Every structure is written in structure tokens, then in C-alpha cells.
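Slide 14.
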Amino acid sequence: MKNLSKLTFYTILIRVINLSLRLSLIVILGKFYSLEFVGIYGLILALVGICVQMIPFEFYSYTTLEILEKNEMSTNKVLANHFFFIFLMGCICSPIFYATYGYFSLDYSLFFYISFVLVFEILARELSRVLVALEHPIATYIIASIHSSLWIFVIIIGLFQDKLFSIEEVLVLWGSSGIIAAITGLYFVKQKVSDKIFHFNFLSIDWIKNGIFFTFPLLIGSLSHAMNQYVGRFFLGNNISLSDISVFTIYFQISALVLITVEVLQNIYIPTYVRNNSMKKSNNNYEYAMLIIIAFIALIITFLQERIFIFINPELLNDLDTMHMLLLAMSALSFAAVLRNRLYVKRLKYKIMYSYFIAMIVSLIGNSVFVPRYGAYGSASTMFISGLFLCLSIYLFDKFNRPKIV
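Slide 15: predicted structure.
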């Protein structure tokens, strides 16, 4: 129990530091950088958010279950196959990424900078996810903090020296943080898995094929989830000004703190959730606790928003209805992520896919209808509605797939 308390303390401490740096970045972008810079950063963030869901193929979901359930293949061989598949997906997706890059309204001069970010962002994320399966949560959040916050820390230091970075320099810092995180992740993985990992003799086409069949529905689900969050920004690009997109980006980043916090707590609890399910124990108390936490965080942000916006830029106070709607949307998406565990542990992968796909369709239709008429508020409202559809779909799929008691 003492070790658990210490683990919880360190995990929370790491995450508080990480969230503080993220909030600092939002403040810095809004207060010291131009609206054009914030708009470009928002588009890059949306592009990276979609790619980090699509390229890894959600393969970590299969790998996590294989490691936790201790199936036939040893852990080091599971990891060898996992990272070989991620490398293969990167090779396949690279030409597709280049061919579709022009549709994201970003200059081609940024292509290689964004590619640099993507390579090491994906690698660092995959290592942190693997460490969840290896039940090393502290290492998971150390890596997450490095790749998502180290570059922000450098930007903050630069600000104290009256240095404002160009978008190219920011991307180099971001990618470099990913390199450091990846090296750190490999070190922690080797602490848990002493046997050789990277060896071609460990590769199993059958295992990878099974993983593809298992994770393909999850990929559609995760990609739909990413589209649900970010597709509105591209609709907005054709209907509102760059300054309004910048405001929406800042609102989105602040409200996303709810979802980020939930994802952290999810990663801590998921091994216990899987074990409880295998032993037929209920996880209802966890879901109730997460619902309370989501509401608490949203209320804290609502209470502090005026002070934050006055400090950043008083113009942010002009559209608080959109901010409030984004908070509701992120709260709905956060609770949907909690409910998703019900389908995940039962391996109801197609139900997960259907749930997120339904939400994406709602998002696409809603954005196409409401954004031209209501602008940023229409996009935020669509995200909230699709989040409600997502929660309802997951709940119903779980309810109608419970085993019958004889």
C-alpha cells in the first residue's frame, strides 16, 4: 500500500508538471505570438493528431492484451513484432502522407519538419504505451512528459531571454524532444525485458496478421475519434478568419486538459481494469470516480477561465459560449474513453469501430451544416453532439453484448 501511494504521488507530480507546461504554452502562444503563428500551429497540431492515430494502426491495443494475458509468445518477441509492424506502417504511409499533404493548407516548406516530428512522436508514444503493458506507469509518464513538454520548456526559457521561435524552430525542438523520449523509453523497456528484442528471427507473420485483424476496427475507431476532434478545424478554415481559428485553437487546447487528464488516469488503471474483468469483478466504481473527476476538472477550468483569458488576451472573453461548449464536448469524449474500456476488455473491437464511426459521421454532417451558419460555436456544438452519440453507442453495444446468466 505504501508503494502504491508513492507511485500515485510521483505519477500525479509528473502529470501536474506536464499539464502546467502545456497550459504555459497556450498562454505564451496567445500572448506573445502572432495570430498567423497560432493558426499554423493549430493546423499542424490537427495534422499530427490524425497521423499519430492512423500510422501506428492502434497495434498497441493488441500488444497490450498479449503481454498482460501472457499468451503463447514471450514478451520480447511480442515487442519485436510490434515495432517491426510500426516501422512497416511508416514506410507504407509516407508516400500517402506526401500525396495528401497539400489538402491541409500548410506550406510544403514545413513538410520535412512535420515528418521529423511525426517519426519520433510516434516512436515515443509507442514506447510509452508498451510500458503500460509492462506495468511501469512512472516510466510511461516520464516519457510522455519528455516528448510532449521538454520542447515547451525550451520555448519558455527562450521567452525569458526575449527569444521568439519560428515555426520551423518549434518543430525542430518538438522532434528533438521525441528523440530524447525514445531513447529514454528504450532504456526503461530494457529494464523490464532483459532478453534481446530486435531480431528478425523473432518475427511472426501469423502473429502480425492476427494483430491486424484485431486492431483494424480499433484503427477505424481511433481515426474516427481523431477526425471527430480535429476535422472541425479544417471546416473552419474555409468559413472563418485566421484570427477566429486562433481563438478556437486556444479554447480547444485549454478544454483538452480534461481529456488529457483522463487519458493519464486510464493508463494507470487499465492493467487493473483488465484483471478485474478477467476475474469477473466490477469496474463500476472506477467509472463513477472518473465521471466525478471529469466534472470537477471542467468546473475548475470554468472558474479560472476569465482570469486566464484576461491575462492572455482580453479578446478571448468575446466568445465564451464556444469555450463552454468545447468543455462539454471534451467532457463527453473523456467519459466515452472511460466507457470504451467495457468493449475493449471484451475484445468487441467491431463495436468500438461502429461507435466511433457513428460519432465521426455525426461530426462530418454537423460541421458541414453548422459551421457555415454558426462558425466556431457550430463546430464546438457538433463535437459535443457527436460525443453524446459516442457515449450512447458504447453503452448500448455493451448492454446488448453482456453474457446471459443461466
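Speaker note: DSSP finds 13 helices and no strands in the chain.
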